[in-house]
From TrEMBL:
Annotated compartments: Cytoplasm; Membrane
GO cellular component: cytoplasm; membrane
GO terms of molecular function: SH3 domain binding
Record's function text: Involved in cytoskeletal rearrangements required for phagocytosis of apoptotic cells and cell motility. Acts in association with DOCK1 and CRK. Was initially proposed to be required in complex with DOCK1 to activate Rac Rho small GTPases. May enhance the guanine nucleotide exchange factor (GEF) activity of DOCK1.
Protein keywords: Apoptosis, Cytoplasm, Membrane, Phagocytosis, Phosphoprotein, SH3-binding
Pfam short name (any one): PH_12
Protein name, entry field: Engulfment and cell motility 1
GO biological process: apoptotic process; phagocytosis
Length: 693
């Protein structure tokens, strides 16, 4: 029973308990068990009563009273209990009407009361955003007039920062949550009107602006995306982002990094159509591209329509030249581009390289055509496989991750960044081929080395394509061999029988060590983030294992913790004995629910759930793959199951190798036989006499 029922208050339904901290959240039957020890509560008017009063106050004729009411509404709307009551009074409709008509109503007062007017509109939009974030009301219910009004705030050159920020957030949510609203917003907002907001100095405004562009890009029909990309290129969006965001004299925060990553992914996904398009061997326009590659490489005087020479001679000459170009099918190279991926994208890359880096292209083709057959690097085959590999590295065609911040600044330094990326890598491939003295049988080995070179260079996050090229210069085949040798020495796999027996003997001891490390990490705990439709409003929760390994403690946090989280701040408990199972990926209940997250491969790989009691679960999305492995290993260890993660395998290999090397230090340069030495025969007698003098 709630306390005020025992206090015999009249009209007790008009009262409620509320957190006395800055959250001001109401206590309900649903959340009363979440109250932490020592939490200060206050007795206040009920959510329904408060909602009714605010509903009336925001319609006051007094500007000061109205402003104060809207300020309170913006604060209280974060609480879902209050939000539900206010929405039941048709509060959302009232706010939209105030936005649509209120601005004209107070237009005359702007000159003399501009700060008051700006604050009033800011609080109105803040309350609207908070109320809509609860997902109670559908976005499809809003009028064109409201959309136009919100768009007008974005389109104005001089607008209060807080109003602009909330207007951009509303437009982003409209686009992401409703197809109909996407079309209406797209009619009201142009890229040209958004660009000026990127040229300012406020990173939060820049972040919201890129978020709106990403939302419009993501929801655009397939046929509209390329058109939109052309507009972005015309407006020089890339160079503006490079100058005012990436190279600005300030650190890029996580949300900005995420939005840049999303824009990078959506831009590269424009290549998917060409990547999945097979070449039509009968299409003359496509065949002409292959003719052009041949013409540039060999500067042929006789063109296909030249009447000089017999048809047979021309066919023979073309076949010879196509072989020099490195195509698999010398007679009809169009057949090389019928596999998807990479489809026509490979041919596009080859033509771009031939036209924009003509000297390098001719050098590579002629250089290889003059080598012995067994040592020539096939340009055509290499280009096709390289294009496919680069698409895999950049995950062309995959949806952006909800959690990834992995953008590469160098891709924002050129309008044709993927093509330039290819041009650098095809020259690297030719260089590596020569360094390896490779033959056609070594083709796959060369591709593996090139992939390793590219991946290692990308991990350094070069700021420009020239810097990327420089990184690759330092990653020659010789350097890759040194790195591999070093890694092999650190993870040497001894295969002799005595070593294998030694491994088998000490492996349980190493596994126990890994298990204790995992459990210790669970005792330290981890901060997990709750994902919602609007990623910027991050909510956090923390989970840790008790020191005696018997209970999991967890609870919500206001913000990401900077230090150790006190035990008494985590009020929820789950006894380890009640855990029935740990499930991962698609088997998790929160991954089976409808929503964008279940379509995302990276989020699926970080998801796990604890199942307990009857149909109860505790759902997790790990911050990264390392924490995912730590927690799934630790939970399996608590349940007496094997630790099966990739991290455990790597740790086991590393620790086993180190332990064996330590034990074999005294046997350095001594050959260990595969079989133990034979036991000598017994002596004929045991009448041994030792003279100790």
């Amino acid at each position: 029973m709630l306390p005020f029922l025992r206090w015999s208050l009249a009209n007790h339904e008009c009262f409620a308990l509320q957190h006395a901290d800055s959250s001001n959240f109401y206590i309900t039957e649903k959340n009363r068990n979440e109250i932490k020890n020592g939490t200060i509560l206050r007795l206040t008017t009920s959510p329904a009563q408060n909602a009714q009063q605010l509903h009336e106050r925001i319609q006051s004729s007094s500007m000061d009273a109205k402003l104060e009411a809207l300020k309170d509404l913006a604060s209280l709307s974060r609480d879902v209990t209050f939000a539900q009551e206010f929405i039941n009074l048709d509060g959302i409709c009232l706010l939209t009407q105030m936005v649509e008509s209120g601005t004209e109503r107070y237009q005359k007062l702007q000159k003399i009361m501009k700060p008051c007017f700006g604050d009033m509109l800011s609080f109105t939009l803040t309350a609207f955003v908070e109320l809509m974030d609860h997902g109670i009301v559908s976005w499809d219910t809003f009028s064109v007039a409201f959309i136009k009004k919100i768009a007008s705030f974005v389109n104005k050159s001089a607008m209060d920062i807080s109003i602009l920020q909330r207007s951009l957030a509303i437009l982003e949510s409209m686009v992401l949550n409703s197809h109909d609203l996407y079309q209406k917003v797209a009619q009201e907002i142009t890229i040209g009107q958004l660009i000026p907001h990127l040229q300012g100095t406020d990173q939060e405004i820049q972040t919201y602006t890129i978020a709106v562009i990403n939302a419009l890009f993501l929801k655009a029909p397939d046929e509209r995306r390329q058109e939109m990309a052309n507009i972005l290129a015309q407006k020089q969006l890339r160079s503006i982002i490079l100058t005012h965001v990436i190279r600005a004299q300030r650190a890029i925060n996580n949300e900005m990094a995420h939005q840049l990553y999303v824009l990078q992914v959506l831009t590269f996904n424009l290549l998917e159509d060409r990547m999945m398009t097979k070449m039509d061997p009968q299409d003359q326009a496509q065949r002409d591209i292959i003719f052009e590659l041949r013409r540039i490489a060999f500067d042929a005087e006789s063109e296909p329509n030249n009447s000089s020479g017999s048809m047979e001679k021309r066919k023979s000459m073309y076949t010879r030249d196509y072989k020099k170009l490195g195509f698999i099918n010398h007679v009809n190279p169009a057949m090389d581009f019928t596999q998807t991926p990479p489809g026509m994208l490979a041919l596009d890359n080859m033509l771009y390289f031939a036209k924009h880096h003509q000297d390098a292209y001719i050098r590579i083709v002629l250089e290889n055509s003059s080598r012995e057959d067994k040592h020539e690097c096939p340009f055509g085959r290499s280009s096709i496989e390289l294009t496919k590999m680069l698409c895999e590295i950049l995950k062309v065609g995959e949806l952006p991750s909800e959690t990834c911040n992995d953008f590469h600044p160098m891709f924002f330094t050129h309008d044709r960044s993927f093509e330039e990326f290819f041009c650098i890598c095809i020259q690297l491939l030719n260089k590596t081929w020569k360094e390896m003295r490779a033959t056609s049988e070594d083709f796959n080995k060369v591709m593996q080395v090139v992939k390793e070179q590219v991946m290692r260079a990308l991990t350094t996050k070069p700021s420009s394509l020239d810097q990327f090229k420089s990184k690759l210069q330092n990653l020659s085949y010789t350097e890759i061999l040194k790195i591999r040798q070093s890694e092999r020495m650190n993870q040497e796999d001894f295969q002799s029988r005595p070593i294998l027996e030694l491994k088998e003997k000490i492996q349980p001891e190493i596994l126990e060590l890994i298990k204790q490390q995992r459990l210790n990490r669970l005792v330290e705990g981890t901060c997990f983030r709750k994902l919602n439709c609007r990623r910027r409003q991050d909510k956090f929760w923390y989970c840790r294992l008790s020191p005696n390994h018997k209970v999991l403690h967890y609870g919500d946090l206001e913000e990401s913790p900077q230090g150790e989280v006190p035990h008494d701040s985590l009020q929820d408990k789950l006894p380890v004995a009640d855990i029935k199972a740990v499930v991962t990926g698609k088997d998790c209940p929160h991954m089976k629910e409808k929503g964008a997250l279940k379509q995302n491969k990276e989020v699926l790989e970080l998801a796990f759930s604890i199942l307990y009691d009857s149909n109860c679960q505790l759902n997790f999305i790990a911050p990264d793959k390392h924490e995912y492995c730590i927690w799934t290993d630790g939970l399996n260890a608590l349940l007496g199951k094997d630790m099966m993660s990739e991290l455990t395998r790597n740790d086991l290999d590393t620790l086993l190798s180190m332990e064996i090397k330590l034990r074999l230090l005294d046997l350095e340069n001594i050959q260990i036989p595969d079989a133990p030495p034979p036991i000598p025969k017994e002596p004929s007698n045991y009448d041994f006499v030792y003279d100790c003098n």
